[in-house]
Amino acid sequence: MKISVFRKVHFNAAHRLHNPNWSDEKNKEIFGKCNNPSYHGHNYDLIVKVKGEIDPETGYVIDMKYLKDLIGEHVLERFDHKNLNVDTEEFKNVNPTAENIAVVIWNILRHHIDPAHELSVRLYETPRNFVEYDGE
Amino acid sequence: MKISVFRKVHFNAAHRLHNPNWSDEKNKEIFGKCNNPSYHGHNYDLIVKVKGEIDPETGYVIDMKYLKDLIGEHVLERFDHKNLNVDTEEFKNVNPTAENIAVVIWNILRHHIDPAHELSVRLYETPRNFVEYDGE
Amino acid sequence: MKISVFRKVHFNAAHRLHNPNWSDEKNKEIFGKCNNPSYHGHNYDLIVKVKGEIDPETGYVIDMKYLKDLIGEHVLERFDHKNLNVDTEEFKNVNPTAENIAVVIWNILRHHIDPAHELSVRLYETPRNFVEYDGE
Amino acid sequence: MKISVFRKVHFNAAHRLHNPNWSDEKNKEIFGKCNNPSYHGHNYDLIVKVKGEIDPETGYVIDMKYLKDLIGEHVLERFDHKNLNVDTEEFKNVNPTAENIAVVIWNILRHHIDPAHELSVRLYETPRNFVEYDGE
Amino acid sequence: MKISVFRKVHFNAAHRLHNPNWSDEKNKEIFGKCNNPSYHGHNYDLIVKVKGEIDPETGYVIDMKYLKDLIGEHVLERFDHKNLNVDTEEFKNVNPTAENIAVVIWNILRHHIDPAHELSVRLYETPRNFVEYDGE
Amino acid sequence: MKISVFRKVHFNAAHRLHNPNWSDEKNKEIFGKCNNPSYHGHNYDLIVKVKGEIDPETGYVIDMKYLKDLIGEHVLERFDHKNLNVDTEEFKNVNPTAENIAVVIWNILRHHIDPAHELSVRLYETPRNFVEYDGE
Predict the structure, then answer these.
(1) Closest residue to A42, CB basis, from F33, F41, F86
(2) ipTM over 0.90
(3) H helical segments located in chain B
(4) Which fold has domain A2-133?
(5) Is D64's CB within 8 Å of B102's CB?
(6) What span, in angstroms and rounded, lies between the C-alpha atoms of F135 and E4?
(7) What is the pLDDT of residue C48?
């Protein structure tokens, strides 16, 4: 019997979409305003889902405070109030699209979540554009 | 490795729930206020989900601007600020319940989305009533 | 010492913007898609604000259940799941713009709220378009 | 061809997280502020999902009014404006974590939903902490 | 030239509406389910508004981090995860209606906000019921 | 008889809080993470309020499409997907706090709104931090 628990957090970051193998013209054509060389930014909402069995002692799948602190330490410390392209190792050579940010966050968190637990992340770049990744 | 991307749009429409094979009494009994002969209406929120692999060149599953324009051209042009029962071919003979609207939209979009991509639509008739269809 | 209390309700209705003194061309030019002769519709959110002194016996400005029932009886019964242009007396000769709907609702409720209380209504036609009227 | 329909409702309740087999110190250590002996409370949002085939007569998977009334009778009557630990049979011996509340609600509703229909419940304890259970 | 800044926070609490000068019957009649002797609870959302001139050095009316910490220390520490009737001095003899909670919070914060600044608080008991108090 | 109409729009931008007259240490102390030299960013939500009399011909205070286009041309074109500190004239010498951005937007729009209409702007930097300015 498995149940999913979700924790929602948010962070603010600047980014720019850019493929260094392309000309400026092609970057502008493909990424439009998101290619602005001076960057723009977002309030990212992140929902982390952990699925597993309920511990009969606590009634928890995972302690939400522990999960919140884990996300804080490994995700928010790294990305909150940062320029993703400039200030982070993860996006030095990876284009910070919502898709890629979600995969990077999933890979970071996967190391810190009990392997018996399934993990999924949903990332809202705006309330109208969002992505979801579960490692499969 | 697959990831889902979501685009949320909205449209406003009038509709009426009605089964022409039933008496007025039975229509009123089953559909209640939603059977009002003069129609009522909704702000529909539509979330389109496309699941596929990330293109390593762009970092996108699908260009969100392209997806937005596709939904605009094929869904919003057809249904926004319309009376679903009166102004559309799709609901001339189909009762415009949220379920049927979602299936119709899925079928429309399926023709325009790369067959390698999975497609799902979620339709909010109100914030409290919504449906989801993935073609299975 | 005065405090404001707010009650939020919602209703769904069809409507059409139209000025019968104008030509069809002018109606179409001014009201655009909102002039569709077959109507379109909205999920209207209504927030009613009542400002007054706190009753020391109850700790209430006004009993929220009473206010909810009042709005239900005098506003929702009249407008919910209706075609505003066709099914209501109020909009037979009044164009059902958000502005006019708010004024009509304010006038209806003013008769049923203690004159010692200030009254204001906010009406959301969509989450992006809304109006507010306080009778002044 | 199956489609999911969702109905969202809310209820307000007091609760306290506590394991009677543990010392007060351990309860305090594990459950923190949620262990407050005088209770605290939440506005719970509950989303019930029912998946099945569309009835060709109605265009419905399930009548939303029926589903709403079902949830009202079997869930809201039991838990709304209650102290989960004190006023309910279900949580006399079960710790009312979000996980356990979701499982209890799923089990209650499963008896009243057509076995041909899949059932899932999502419970928001706060907008940032929520759980989902589908019986598997 | 004055501008308003707003900070939104939330807390979870149990409460019960009750007037000790009334019979149980009258309490039950007036307060309904909110009179439940075992309490119920809410996720309260609090929006604090401070209006004043912009400091030309900082571009701030008030440092939002300072305002957040102030609310945390003086409001959240006192009321979050508490039973308002049982655990607090403020509601020992005051009925914890939304109106009274807002007035109590305004009075607490007024002592800690620069007298040159106007202060207003909005308190959501649920998304549908809320109150606002500005001290006038 | 006056009524207020509101139009909500959004834009995404990068920014950095910084006072060039201060040392790096003081900037860091006062502005914290918001002083990050590489910038961070936000999804800004902007609500523009226009108050005036209802035109009896249209039932409008102001045509919402006109208001939307006005905001698009004069605000979104200037600030959407931009770095406020680097890409705009307005914040070359003005610290882009939410307060200052709201004042700048109000001043821009005031030139384009009928002087008979009152104008107010509300700017959300995050759902928890926002400001409001009405020119007084």
Answers:
(1) F41
(2) yes
(3) 24-31, 64-71, 77-79, 84-87, 98-110
(4) Tetrahydropterin Synthase; Chain A (3.30.479)
(5) no
(6) 11
(7) 98
